[in-house]
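Q: What changes when phosphoenolpyruvate is included in the input?
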Amino acid sequence: MRKFVYQFSEGSKEMKNLLGGKGANLAEMTNIGLPVPPGFIISTAACNDYTNSNKHLSEDIFEEVKIHLAELERQTGKIFGFKENPLLVSVRSGAPFSMPGMMDTVLNLGLNDATARGLASLTNDSRSALDSYRRFIQMFGDVVFEIPSYHFEQALTQIKKTNNYLLDTELTAEDLSELVATYKTIFTQATGQNFPQEPLEQLRLAIIAVFNSWMNPRAVIYRRLNNIDASFGTAVNIQAMVFGNTGETSGTGITFTRNPSTGEKAVFGEFLLNAQGEDVVAGIRTPEPIKALEKRMPIVYNELIKTCELLENHYLDMQDIEFTIEKEKLFILQTRSGKRTAKAAIQVAVDLVHEGKITKAEALIRVETKQLDQLLHPTFVESALKVGQVLATGLPASPGAATGQIYFTAKEAVQAAERGISVILVRNETSPEDIEGMAKSAAILTAHGGMTSHAAVVARGMGKCCIAGCSELIINEKEKTIILKNGTQLHEGEQISLDGTSGKVYLGEIELTEAAIGGHFDELMTWADEEKQLMIRVNADTPADFKKALLFGAEGIGLCRTEHMFFDEKRIPYVRQMILAESLAERESVLTTLKEMQKEDFTALFRIADGRAVNIRLLDPPLHEFLPNTNREIEQLASEMNRTVPQLTKRIHSLAETNPMLGHRGSRLAITFPEIYRMQAEAIIESAVIVHDEGIAVHPEIMIPLIATKSELKYIKKEIKHAIHSIFDKERVVLPYDIGTMIEIPRACVTADEIAEEAQFFSFGTNDLTQLTYGFSRDDAAKFLSDYYEKNILPNDPFVTIDKEGVGALVEMAVTRGRMTHANLKMGVCGEHGGDPESIRFFHQLGLSYVSCSPYRVPIARLAAAQASLHEKEMLTTV
Ligand code: PEP
Ligand code: MG
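A: The predicted holo structure follows.
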């Protein structure tokens, strides 16, 4: 018979896919002798069996569960469902990849009226027993029967109010007994049945609920956001309960072996006395910092610190550890690699290398490329911050800065973000249902909860600024207001600013500034540069973008889109005149003006490049983006061009295209009007001569866009070469330069061997290549692609991650054919895919010389290129 259930002692950390991350680590910790309450794991294979058999939990699997339950009874000396000495268990989900808070947990399972009484007399503590029972009814009702928690919360609040209590811990045994009765009534009213008293039935229903939670909407969204495959399934961990809610010598907490916000090497965490499981994460009570445990229970504290060290050294990574203290005895309930900010990820990885625990290669692999994004984002301008009005201070839960309008529900946050608003999501506490709203918001502010609350953990994972536990604010989610300490109210849509590093909330908008990087970041990036084989260039059209990109480590310009240089308000009239000119003479006169402007641009870029590659693409304007639209624009242009309005309108209409993306753009424009590219080539070379004369090395790459045939390229090349050599003759100088082409049309890929006869380099324009290979419009595909993901027709956006089988195969064909003509042909990518880690891996495998991307993605590309190289080496050694 197939085995579906495993004792902790049968597993190990390597068995994550089968036992889930939580189960595998519980097994590992058991085997290294840590105080883990005993238990067993129902594997992910059982979850898949359940899903594949139409959501039926097979009798065979449940029989196997019973066998392991009997073993657990033997290990604990307690009996499941036996009122004298009842065994209680926790039932927790645990997927192969960590999905914090996304799936369900039931604690204290096995309690019923009889066992609750039995437990009370056994421990001589009816308060704790009843407290556990009421928690169980709520969790079971919520997880298994989907009874909204607020029904129970309302009853709890009511009884506290009646008795004038502030805290749950003030409830007496009598209060709790009353609360249990109320909870059971709530249960019956909601489900039409009595609360199940049979522990085995409770267990069966809880296992099914955890399996079902794998497919709940928030888990589905989380997996989509994090690219996790739905076919893994979740495991279920059944573990003997230990109780943190048995008085002031008990408690529960979470600790990180290093600071997950900053990466600092110091144990960091929180705990709550007399509390159970979810209390810390749910953020209902504000916990104490871990250091305070040293005073309260020094022996337990020292044991915890030792355990932190042991686990970190065992896993060789920063750990996130859950613990419970039951009457001064420490139990470890979970360890996992801790979620961390990008800053912390880098510092921890670099420090672990310095501590001799991991290699540089390991450090490079560990830092997630997509996380780097958050480091490179803005912070507040110091001076603006000084005069900013502080409204309140909360816990600095996730660093960064953001300014935006306040919204009080996840749904409204999503809607506002979709209208292009920068949103600050304001909640009392977040819950996993809020995940999409959090993802779409610029930052998150909560009134309750600590540094390990749901909001804090999820925000750090997303790299989002978050302030948690800002208890000075009264947040009224129903009225959609924030009430400040002085009584002032803020309403939905008002602007505030959050500093996630200091925890301060400011009124209004505060100016943001670029991120400051350095230190550990630079060190890691140096290691990346040593490892990577791809060069990383930048797509930049302005000196400012180019300078920023150099700070981020760009090694040159891979794409300067000259049409972007024409968008400038002062220039656009000339560009329009150039396009609308009716004679060569008229066009050439405008071109003379434009040439001077282009020379300013190019000289600036060549100076900044200081000898690095600069690839300038000749004009590729989709015509519709440049034609005048409004009557005013047409009137003004007509007067500038000495035309009548009807004359000009007629000309505009004659140029209008039904499908501009497939229209008179790119090299096609130059076939009709070669003087445009001649002017640009002259501007490039004259600028190169100027900068060369200043003693700065310069070697321009001139790139022709949208080439479909060798003959197009040959014609254009002849035109511009002629112009270039006239300059050399005139200036009595010869400078190196290359003329090459974009490869962005499928026909160019197929005939790349011929095209290479005329090209000194290829640069893959994977944006157009994707558009033309799929026949999806770049500008419109977003409207229907979501249907493709939902229906599993495409896994992701082919404009973001290269479609290896289709578009990628064309790139590969062009690479092979290009090399047939020129073995050393220089080849790179300048489409958006040049900044996407997964695509970068593919380009690395093709042996391209560089990828080019926007400035902010340069560090991501550097790291991704290093990871691609490391993965390749690993594949070579494991083959
Ligand atoms: C491309 O098509 O991939 C490209 C880089 O050019 P553009 O995006 O300017 O069309
Ligand atoms: Mg293109």
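Observations recorded in class: Residues 705, 744, 765, 767-768 surround magnesium ion (ligand 2) (CB under 6 Å).
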